[in-house]
Design goal:
Helix content is 71%, strand content 0%. It is mostly helical.
Amino acid sequence: MAAIIDDRDSSDRPPRSAWAVWAALVLVLSPVLYALSIGPAIWLQGCGVIHPDTTRLLFAPLVWICESFGPLNDLANAYIDLWRYL
């Protein structure tokens, strides 16, 4: 069986630890960006771009989490109000 020769230099590829850092960043930032995206979605809903049912469906998990924790609910409502009245 013929051996496959890889002519690419190993220095062309990022080290495996760089992949772990990127994966960790994605895992941490994804929920944060999802939570922060409710503001612009509410603004777009107010402009008539997004239907209220779509917003309700997309952010149902976030609403459930916020309603489960009082202080978080207050913070989320304040953030939403910033976008609602732009």
